[in-house]
Amino acid sequence: MRNIAPMPIPPHERSPLAEAARAASTRDAAVRRVRSATRWLLAGAIGLTGALAGVVAQQTVPAKASTSGSSGSGSTAAESSGSGEAAATGQGSTDDGSGYAEDQGTYGGSEEGSQGYDDGSGEYQGAPQAPQQAPQQAPQYTPPAASSGAS
Amino acid sequence: MSLRHATATWRVLGTSATVVTADPGALADARVAVEHELDAIDLAASRFRDDSELTALNAAAGSAVEVSALLAQAIHVALRAARHTGGAVDPTLGAELVRAGYDRDFAELPPPVQAAGMGDGGAGAGGAPRRRVPAWPAVRLDRARRLVTLPPGVALDLGATAKALAADRAARAAHATAGCGVLVSLGGDVAVAGPPPAGGWAIRVTDDHAGPQEALGQTVTIRSGGLATSGTTVRRWQADDGPRHHILDPRTGAPARTTWRTASVAAASCVDANTATTAAIVMGASAAPWLLRHGLPARLVDARGRVLLVGAWPRRAEVQPERSAA
């Protein structure tokens, strides 16, 4: 494509009104370019901030947690007066910020095959499973068959 | 609740074993089955026996080693725990445990000078912990050929999950042999199999599984699966730079500084319960949402003895505040 030199403006068209219109047009174009550049800079800054935050979240050792038993979104926590007990119920969030977000096998612990020994007909697969029936409070004065504590 | 069950307790694997049968006449057979399982898991997965398979595997890190079906299962269970806790339960902390001083049977370690009780006591002295790159993602297990390859320099410690696996296997074996409902407890990691007694199996949940029955805690009943408790107040020893406990934070390789001194969880198996309790100790305050997400009923006790009940864990009818042992 050939470059075409701009046509000189004829003297009769150099009216103050035309000059003002051209100046306004030039200014508007410059403002549009500045706005566009600002948007790109803002988007880049947000993206970079997110990426850096992700890196920091992966590498930071979480600060010592509070003892109130933080629970995720949708969960509730309540102190039962005088008992020293609190309860957490409901659904937890999917990102608890602990640095130990659950992974469904994206990385690590490579295992090949699934045969070769009997591990209890499908037991120990997938995430830890809830009990078939939740534990119940034992009636008062029930002698325990065993104890469960740290060892 | 039936009171006719029979109980046997003895020392094994550096802790105590208890077997309870709903039929008192079946106790002897059940105990034999349990002892057989415990002998097998000890020979396969003990870090403290020179003749164990695990010791040989750790010594051969960097090479593919064929292992027994039992050790392959124990490693599978440990890697599964790591995967589903985001690495909070890490079986590749063997070298770090040795560095922390836990290099022989716990009974041979010097007792801590400082009193136990605080959740983060025993996390060790020194400056800021250094970052550790988790090694469990690099462990290779070929389950079909039972071949295991550890990265060079990495040593497995299966203590967190192998004991619970032993409890599950022993309970199943004892039930198959005795033909009645059976409860097996290994150091407080409880598994049950077969029909439970009327009212279920009553279990006292406390800080220390060997503590007196009148110790503060809560008695609950379970009908199947397992119930486990992990804590930082019991398995402690004296290192050169201060008292230590045995639950390491995989991010640093140092004893975990944690919100909870004790975590108890009920699950579909003892392995799952133990996985969750160890993860809860390491995760700290964020353990509650993690437990909720998996529908795992839990009882968490903080360093001051305050109790947080999670999910479907039963609320006590009559309660008494627990006090810190410190």
Percent range for β-strand residues of chain B:
15-25%
Query: Low-confidence stretches of chain A at least 5 residues in length (pLDDT < 50)?
Result: 57-84, 90-97, 102-108, 113-121
The overall strand count of chain B is 17
Described by the principal axes of the CA atoms, the overall outline of chain B is globular
Structural class of chain B: alpha+beta
How would you characterize this protein structure?
The complex is a heterodimer of chains A (151) and B (326). With 151 residues, chain A is α+β, with helices and mostly antiparallel strands. Chain A has a domain at 16-58. Helices cover 29% and strands 15% of the residues of chain A. Chain A has one helix at residues 16-59; strands at residues 75-80, 85-90, 110-112, 136-137, 146-150. Chain A has a two-stranded antiparallel ribbon with strand order 1-2. Chain B is an alpha+beta fold. Chain B has one domain: Roll (T-fold), CATH 3.10.520. Helices cover 27% and strands 25% of the residues of chain B. Chain B is built from seven helices and 17 strands. Chain B has an eight-stranded antiparallel beta sheet with strand order 1-2-6-7-10-15-16-17. In chain B, strand 1 and strand 2 form a beta hairpin. Classes of the chains: A alpha+beta (151), B alpha+beta (326). Strand 2 (85-90) of chain A pairs parallel with strand 17 of chain B, so a sheet runs across the interface.
